[in-house]
Amino acid sequence: MKTCSYACASPEHQLARRSFLGTLAAGTGAVVGGLGWFAQPAIAGALAKDQKRMIVINMHGGLSQLESWDPKPGTDTGGPFRAIPTSVPGIHISELLPHTAKVMHHLALVRGINTKTDDHGKGAYMMLTGRRQMPGQTYPEIGAVVAKCLDSDERSLPGHIRVTAGGGGGRGSDSAYLGPKYASISLGNGNPPQHTARPDSLSETALSQQNEFRRLANTHFLSRRRTAMTDAYVQSYEQALELMKQREVFDLTKEPQKDHDRYGKHDFGRHCLLARRLIEKGVTFVQVAHSNYDTHNENFNFHFEQLGEFDQPFATLVTDLADRGLLDSTLIVVLSEFGRTPNINQYYGRDHWGKAWSVCLGGAGIARGAVIGKTGPKGTEVTEREVDAGHLFHTYLRALGVGSKGAFDIAGRQVLMADPACGPIKELLV
């Protein structure tokens, strides 16, 4: 039976299989019991070795490629900003990104994206699932797929985290047929998940006794009526207990003040620092949101402010990942739901444009300093190596060492991981 295809027999997957089977043979009841055994330091250390990770920075609203990754200065569509050289000879990006320009040797650009949609919802869906929206069919987002493919049962922390400016604490509905285990957990404003602190009125002893009774009841119930829903409930409850034990993983006050200063005191800076912390602590996938780039009015003023906030924290994150030896195993992607129109409207804004735009990415299996694709002199169309969201999705998986042509076994039905009509951008992979 074909299941999720891993590109290699990595140590963590071999260890996971042997340890899990060994535990069952010993009769410890690991499936219905707690996850505490999996959190042993020796096991965690072995699993952390060569672990692949992914960070997505989602520029909500539609980042302008002309004010970021594909500037066209001196043209009637280019706008007022200059193009500046980067740390890679021959590659120029917008002057709004001076810090990012200094770390371009760690990154790559895809400048030939054509998703053929100018709709926020459809564009966001495509970029996060690699598929077009179809009636009656929902596909999992990249975070759920990465967590499913790269996480092992031994990892007690959730593998799919979203860091947002507001709300938070709940599970998302972004894992589709992969189930609630791989749905995102939102950290509103970068705070720890809600309801993960033990109430003062409840002692450790009382909490332990309650959970022991719950596990006994679960074991009795599951022996007669085990379903996917009851398994999901047990898994979610056990994961919540582990979150309570490891709540400090999400606590940014544990990071040195000098790091807070380097990333910046604003939300996006704190969220990038949190993304670094989560990746270092073993979380597989983190998505950070930055908005709003939907600049139908005053595009240039808005991008001046927004990219001014984005630039230094992002460059600091890339530098830290490289300096700490994490960039070779961490894929980092800056995406949006589409770009902005080359033509400038009467309100000095740019409208929605899915026909020719760009994404920045780097780390893991991505060729450093590469530029794939090209747009015409005014940025109105792709002239070289056109790709869409499906190609990017395949590329992300391949860069993480996952065979993107593989399939998930969903109740006996083989569901392909990525759009079979597309393949990876091979020139971008090493």
What does this structure look like?
The chain is built from eleven helices and 16 strands. The chain has one domain (11-22, 32-198, 250-428): Alkaline Phosphatase, subunit A (3-Layer(aba) Sandwich), CATH 3.40.720. Mean pLDDT is 85; it is low at 1-47. The strands form five sheets. It has an eight-stranded mixed β-sheet, with helices on both faces. The chain has a two-stranded antiparallel ribbon with strand order 2-3. The protein is globular. The protein starts with 10 loop residues before the first helix and ends in a 14-residue tail after the last strand. The longest helix is centred in the C-terminal third of the chain and has 25 residues, at 299-323. With 430 residues, the protein is an alpha/beta fold.
Keywords:
430 residues; alpha/beta; Alkaline Phosphatase, subunit A; two-stranded antiparallel ribbon; 16 strands; 33% helix; 16% strand; globular
Q: What's this model, at a glance?
A:
The chain has 430 residues and is α/β, with parallel strands linked by helices. The chain contains eleven helices and 16 strands.
